[in-house]
Amino acid sequence: MRKWNFCAGPAVISEEVLTEVKEELLEWADSGMSIMEMSHRSKIYDTVATEAKQDFIDILKVPDSHDVLFLQGGATHQFSMIPMNFGRKDLAADYVLSGSWSKKAIAEGSKITNINTIASSEDMQFSYAPNPNIWEMKSDSSYTHYCPNETIQGVAIHSPPKTANTLIADMSSVILSEPIDVSKFALIYAGAQKNIGPAGLTMVVIEKELMGKENESLPNILRYSKHSESDSMLNTPPTFAWYMAGKVFKWIKRSGGLDHFKKQNHLKASTLYKYVDNSGFYTNPVQLENRSIMNIPFILADSNLDALFLKESEEAGLLNLKGHRSVGGMRASIYNAMPIEGINQLIDFMESFKAKYG
Ligand SMILES: Cc1ncc(COP(=O)(O)O)c(C=O)c1O
User: Is 173's C-beta closer than 6 angstroms to any atom of ligand 1?
Assistant: First the structure.
């Protein structure tokens, strides 16, 4: 029996998509084989891959100025691939420190290029995010990097800065949750295992002009332009993850696109925040304007009850509510594929737990 999965990633996938995949798992489209067994150079797979890319472009309204790449290595690989390509000896790269993932990006990037941390909320345990209006951006930095949604702290920067040099964003836990203006970004990257599909795939949306500025001395596998020229098939791509991502894109399209999911996601998040704020037992530590729509941490009034909460929530069919080990408490990740029914069940459980032990 399927239960409600609040995992931060790999995360819940729509049951509609999983059922479709199950039905065509043994044989795909009269090909005599599973999609998993098929050459990535075959005509049939090429149709699957091209359609997935086009659907992603349609959903996110990616302009012609940008290309979309299906890569591997996770978002973590981008932490080094970006500075390897766009870091410059004579200039620093600007980074915003607003949570654990931007901290990792800075740590990795620092091994490769000179980094200038232009704003930080670390002194307040990342309970808010520095407002883009106060980022101390240099006019001559090589690029500006930030993480719009910090998955671990549940802290979001909801609007990008109005101006920034070569703006780069780690959108791993927020991609496809709402419409965005892609033209504001030179590069967007995201691990697929939250809002897109199974792990193993990393989406990159990159301005074509930016690829002209990459480090040409790098091996091909580390160069965005080489992936772009070969339609993300420089080597064998994660074919099954790509195919499944395509299924998710079609599901997003027929569900009403990103406007629909934005509405749903805001409804889900505001329902849960409202309950937490009024409960008198649970609290969310994040400043109001930086509350994430995707990852909602909450703390029990008595941390001695944490283990019991996790045990009983699991028995009630609510899985993976444990907060990240670095933060503690609880966290509900409520990506696109989590319906409002899951939120309502979570709230019912939280209310009965409070009544019993609060
Ligand atoms: C915001 C963010 N960035 C980066 C990562 C690392 O992603 P990956 O495991 O795909 O390297 C994660 C993973 O949870 C994340 O949430």
Answer: yes
* Single pTM value for the model: 0.98
Task: Identify any residues that bridge with 88 across adjacent strands, giving them in sequence order.
Answer: 91
101 C-alpha to ligand 1 centroid (Å): 7
pLDDT tens series, the chain, 358 aa: 899 999 999 999 999 999 999 999 999 989 999 999 999 999 999 999 999 999 999 999 999 999 999 999 999 999 999 999 999 989 999 999 999 999 999 999 999 999 999 999 999 999 999 999 999 887 889 999 999 999 999 999 999 998 889 999 999 999 999 999 999 999 999 999 999 999 999 999 999 999 999 999 999 999 999 999 999 999 999 999 999 999 999 999 999 999 999 999 999 999 999 999 999 999 999 999 999 999 999 999 999 999 999 999 999 999 999 999 888 899 999 999 999 999 999 999 999 999 999 8
Q: Among 289, 11, 3, 345, which Cα is nearest to 177's?
A: 11
Measured by CA distance, the residue closest to atom 9 of ligand 1 is 74
Of all protein residues, whose CA lies closest to atom 5 belonging to ligand 1? 75
Structural domain spans, the chain: 15-255, 257-357
147 lines ligand 1 (CB under 6 A): yes
Catalytic residues: 101, 170, 194
* CATH class of this structure's domain 15-255: alpha beta
CATH code for the domain defined by 257-357: 3.90.1150.10
- The DSSP line for 122-147 is GGGTTSS---GGG----TT-S-EEE-
Q: What is the DSSP string of 53-83?
A: HHHHHHHHT--TTEEEEEE-SHHHHHHHHHH
On the question of a common fold for 15-255 and 257-357, the answer reads no
Contact 323, 303 (CB under 8 A): no
Question: Which of 171, 172, 176 for a ligand 1 pocket mutation test, highest count of atoms within 8 Å of Cβ?
Answer: 172
